[in-house]
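The instructor's notes for this session suggest beginning with a concrete chain rather than abstract definitions. Hand out the sequence below and ask the class to guess, before any prediction is shown, which regions might be ordered.
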Amino acid sequence: MAAKFAKKDAGRSGARENIAFVKQMLAELRQVAERENADVLCYLIEMAYIEAGDLHARM
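After discussion, reveal the predicted structure:
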């Protein structure tokens, strides 16, 4: 039974890492969009960044 929980926790850890990676990439994309004065794109990326942060916090 403990092995099942260990696998589940390992999967969760991988998911947290994936979401953290997505959040980091969104931060970098926002910087690029900001340099290009792409205001709507910045807004959309920011919304995705916030959602990724919320998801990461709930995991």
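Then share the key points. The CA atoms of residues 30 and 43 lie 9 Å apart. The helical segments are 2-35, 39-58.
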